[in-house]
From TrEMBL:
Keywords: Coiled coil, Metal-binding, Zinc, Zinc-finger. GO terms for molecular function: zinc ion binding. GO terms for cellular component: membrane raft. This is RING-type domain-containing protein. Residues 559-605 form a coiled coil. One of its GO terms (biological process) is innate immune response. Residues 643-686 form the RING-type domain. Signal peptide: none annotated. InterPro entries: DUF7809, Znf_RING, Znf_RING/FYVE/PHD. It comes from Caenorhabditis nigoni.
Length: 692
C-alpha cells in the first residue's frame, strides 16, 4: 500500500478526534454536561498513539454521562468506525487543521482498487509532508488544500488507486520546488521590500497569495488566517522571518497549483468528454447490493443511455435505491465502473455516507433503518421519553410517519448534517429527534426520571434486569415489558465484550426490552423494520414474516442443495463416461499392440527355427565330410520338414510344394492354394507368396 496514505505522527492533532467523539455521544449531552469536555482544554498534550488515554480523559470528566458506551477502548473503536468515510475531515476538522484521517481504499466489482477523489487531497498533503517537515503558516497549507477539496462540491467520484502516479507526482513536486529555490540574494530582495512595508501592507501582500479560484467564504477564511498570523507575529518575529514565510507560501501555492492543474482528472469532477469510466457506488449491506437512483440517473444520462430520471420519488431528505441486479438487467452499463461501498456501523451510530447532492461536505446520509434505530436510542435512553411522557404510542407513530416513508419496501437513505463545532444546545437542535419533536421534548426536559443504575462487579442476572425495568417505571407504561427480559438478557449475554455483564450491557437490555414492546404494539413500525432488514438488530424480536421467509429460504436452500447435488452427479457421471471411454480406447490400443507383438514373436520363432535347421544341416555336412558312421544310413540323416499351414510333414522327394522366396519355407501346393484364397502373406514371415 502507498506510503502516502498515512499522516505523519508529527502532524497529528486532537481536534478531529475530539469532534468525532462529541458527535458520536452527543445524544447524551445536555445542559448538565461539564463544559470541560465541550472545549479543547483536555486535549492539550495530546500525542499520536495516545488516543485511548485521550478518550479515557473525556469519560472521566463527563459526569457519568458516557456509561452506556463501555470502556475507553470500546468507545475509541466505535468512534474510529463512525468517522471512517471519505472527506470526513471536512466534517470533524476545521478549515485550518491538517488532514488527519487515513484514506480508505475501495474495490470495484472488477476487483480493481479505487480511491475517493475527496481523499486525494489527503494524499497530496502527505506527499508535500514527505518533502517538507512542515511549512510556513501550516494553516494556510491546510486551508488551501481543503478549499480545493471543497471546490469539487457534489463529487462522489472515484479514481484508480495508482501508486506509480503518486510517485510521479512526488517527483514532479520535488523538481518544481528545486526550480523555485530562492538564492540568498532573492531572499535579501524580499526582505528589503518587506522592511519598507507597514503591517497593513504586509497583510495585503499575503492576501494577494489567495488563489483566484477561492469563493467568498474561502477568501474570508484565508484573510482571517493571514491577519491572525501577522498580528501574532507583531513584535515577536523579525521582519526577515515574515518575509521568508511569505516567499515560501508563494512557492507552495504555485507548486500545488501546477500539480493540480496537470492532474485535473484526479482533482476535479469528471468532465463530459472524459474517457475515464463513470464510477458508481454499489452499497453492500449484508446480502443486499443497491445503488442510489439519483446517482444511477446521472451516470446513465452522462452515458446517453437514459432519457427519464429514476429518482422522481426522492425529496430533499430521502434518497431511494435500486438493486444492482435491476441495473445490470435493464440498463446499458458500458463505461461504468461499479465501486463496492460497504455500509459500516458502530454500536450506536451508523457511519455517514457522503450525500450525492451535498452542497457542503458536512451533508451526509445514512440508511433510514439506521436513522430509525438512532432515533429510538436517543428517545429511550437519552431523553427517557417513556419514563416521563403520559402520551400514547400513536404520538410517536405520527412523528415517525412525517420523518420516514414507513411503506417503503426497499432501502433508502436519510439525509443528516454534521455540525461538530456547535455548542451543546445547538448540537441538540440540529439532531433528528429534536427536529422532529420540536418543543414537545423540551417540555419534558425538566421532568425527573431515574437513571439506569450501575451493574455490580460480578454482573447482573435476569431478575436484576426485571427489577431495573420496574425501578425505572417502565412497567407502568409497558406492563408486559418484563416478559421480554429473558430473551433480551440471553442476547445481551451473547454479545458482551468482557467476562461479566457491565453497566453498558444493562443500557442495551433496557433499550431492547422497550423496543420489543413498541414494535409489538405498532405493527406498522414492525413491518417497516422487517422491510428494511432490521429485525435481527432488535434483541429477541419475534417476526412472523422473517420466520415465513426463513421457511421459504430453507426450502429454497434445500432445493438449491438438491439441484447442486444433481448437477454434481451429472458432472461426475459424465466424468466416469469419459474415463471409461478413455480406458476402452487404451485397451483397444493395447490389444492391437499385443496382436502386432504376437505376430512379430511368431515370425521371430520361425526365423529362429530356420536358423536352427540350417545350423543342424551344417553340422551334419561337416560330419559326413570328416567322419564315417557305419551305424547311420543315408535315409536316417534326412530331416522331415513340416508344412506350417496343415502342420503335416512334407515327404522327402515330394514335388508338389511351394517355397517362399523370402524365408525359403516350403508348403504343400494344395495348402498354399487354399491359404492364398484368404491371405496374401507367407504364414511364416508375412512376406508375399508367389501367385499360383
Amino acid at each position: 500500500m502507498s506510503r502516502f496514505l498515512d499522516v505523519p505522527n508529527r502532524m497529528k492533532i486532537a481536534t478531529p478526534l475530539h469532534n468525532a467523539a462529541l458527535y458520536y455521544v452527543f445524544p447524551v449531552l445536555d445542559l448538565e454536561t461539564p463544559t470541560f469536555i465541550l472545549t479543547y482544554d483536555y486535549s492539550r498534550g495530546y500525542k499520536a498513539g495516545k488516543e485511548k488515554e485521550f478518550v479515557q480523559l473525556m469519560i472521566n470528566h463527563s459526569n457519568h454521562k458516557l456509561r452506556m458506551y463501555g470502556s475507553a477502548q470500546e468507545l475509541l473503536e466505535n468512534i474510529n468506525v463512525y468517522e471512517s468515510f471519505p472527506g470526513n475531515d471536512m466534517c470533524f476538522g476545521t478549515p485550518t487543521d491538517v488532514f488527519q484521517t487515513r484514506p480508505k481504499i475501495f474495490t470495484s466489482l472488477n476487483n480493481e482498487k479505487y480511491i475517493a477523489k475527496s481523499d486525494l487531497f489527503v494524499v497530496l498533503q502527505n506527499i508535500y509532508f514527505s518533502l517538507r517537515h512542515g511549512g510556513p503558516i501550516l494553516s494556510l497549507v491546510s486551508l488551501y488544500l481543503k478549499s480545493k477539496q471543497e471546490n469539487i462540491g457534489k463529487c462522489t467520484e472515484f479514481v484508480k488507486f495508482d501508486e506509480n502516479r503518486f510517485e510521479q507526482i512526488q517527483k514532479k513536486m520535488y523538481e518544481e520546488f528545486l526550480k523555485r529555490k530562492l538564492s540568498p540574494a532573492e531572499d535579501q530582495k524580499t526582505l528589503r521590500e518587506f522592511s519598507k512595508l507597514s503591517q497593513t501592507e504586509i497583510i495585503k501582500k499575503f492576501k494577494a497569495l489567495c488563489p483566484s479560484t477561492f469563493n467568498e467564504h474561502q477568501k474570508e477564511s484565508f484573510d482571517n488566517v493571514v491577519e491572525r498570523f501577522i498580528n501574532a507575529c507583531k513584535n515577536v518575529i523579525p521582519t526577515e522571518q515574515i518575509a521568508w514565510c511569505y516567499s515560501r507560501c508563494d512557492i507552495f501555492i504555485s507548486v500545488l497549483d501546477i500539480i493540480i492543474n496537470e492532474n485535473l482528472s484526479m482533482f476535479s469532477p469528471r468532465s463530459k468528454n472524459s474517457k475515464e469510466p463513470i464510477t458508481l457506488r454499489v452499497f453492500e449491506d449484508g446480502d443486499q447490493r443497491f445503488l442510489m437512483k439519483s446517482e444511477v440517473s446521472d451516470a446513465l444520462i452522462a452515458n446517453a443511455t437514459l432519457s427519464k430520471r429514476l429518482d422522481d420519488e426522492d425529496d430533499e431528505n430521502t434518497f431511494h435505491t435500486i438493486t444492482l441486479k435491476e441495473v445490470l438487467k435493464n440498463f446499458d452499463t458500458k463505461n461504468i465502473e461499479f465501486i463496492r461501498y460497504p455500509i459500516l456501523r458502530a454500536k450506536h451510530r451508523a457511519t455517514p455516507v457522503p450525500a450525492p447532492t451535498a452542497e457542503k461536505h458536512s451533508e451526509t446520509c445514512i440508511l433510514s433503518i439506521d436513522a430509525f434505530f438512532e432515533f429510538f436510542n436517543e428517545l429511550l435512553l437519552c431523553s427517557k421519553y417513556f419514563q416521563k411522557a403520559d402520551s400514547n404510542l400513536q404520538d410517536v407513530l405520527n412523528v415517525l410517519k412525517n420523518a420516514f416513508k414507513l411503506d417503503s419496501s426497499t432501502p433508502c437513505f436519510h439525509r443528516i448534517s454534521i455540525y461538530p463545532t456547535l455548542s451543546t444546545i445547538e448540537f441538540r437542535r440540529c439532531n433528528t429527534t429534536y427536529a422532529l419533536f420540536g418543543g414537545f421534548l423540551s417540555q419534558l426536559a425538566k421532568v425527573p426520571a431515574k437513571n439506569v443504575r450501575n451493574a455490580e462487579k460480578d454482573g447482573f442476572t435476569v431478575q436484576i434486569l426485571k427489577k431495573e425495568l420496574a425501578s425505572l417505571g417502565l412497567t407502568k407504561k409497558f406492563p408486559e415489558i418484563q416478559n421480554y427480559a429473558v430473551t433480551v438478557y440471553s442476547e445481551v449475554n451473547k454479545r458482551k465484550k468482557e467476562k461479566v455483564l457491565r453497566t453498558c450491557d444493562m443500557f442495551d437490555a433496557v433499550e431492547h426490552c422497550q423496543l420489543n414492546c413498541i414494535l409489538e404494539r405498532l405493527p406498522e413500525l414492525k413491518k417497516f423494520v422487517h422491510n428494511q432488514k432490521g429485525c435481527h438488530r432488535v434483541y429477541g424480536l419475534k417476526c412472523k414474516d422473517c420466520a415465513a421467509e426463513s421457511s421459504e429460504t430453507q426450502k429454497d436452500q434445500k432445493l438449491s442443495i438438491l439441484e447442486k447435488e444433481l448437477a454434481d452427479l451429472k458432472i461426475a457421471y459424465q466424468k466416469v463416461l469419459e474415463e471409461n471411454l478413455k480406458k476402452s480406447l487404451e485397451n483397444q490400443e493395447l490389444q492391437h499392440k499385443n496382436l502386432r507383438l504376437s505376430v512379430k514373436n511368431e515370425t521371430n520363432e520361425i526365423k529362429m527355427k530356420q536358423l536352427t535347421d540350417k545350423l543342424t544341416k551344417s553340422k551334419l555336412s561337416i560330419g559326413d565330410e570328416n567322419y564315417s558312421n557305419p551305424c547311420t544310413s543315408p535315409n536316417t540323416s534326412q530331416l522331415k520338414i513340416q508344412c506350417l499351414i496343415c502342420e503335416k510333414s512334407i515327404e522327402s522327394g515330394e514335388d508338389q510344394i511351394i517355397r517362399c522366396p523370402l524365408c525359403k519355407r516350403r508348403f504343400h501346393s494344395k495348402c498354399a492354394i487354399n491359404w492364398l484364397k484368404e491371405h496374401k502373406e507367407c504364414p511364416a514371415c508375412n512376406g508375399d507368396l508367389p501367385k499360383i
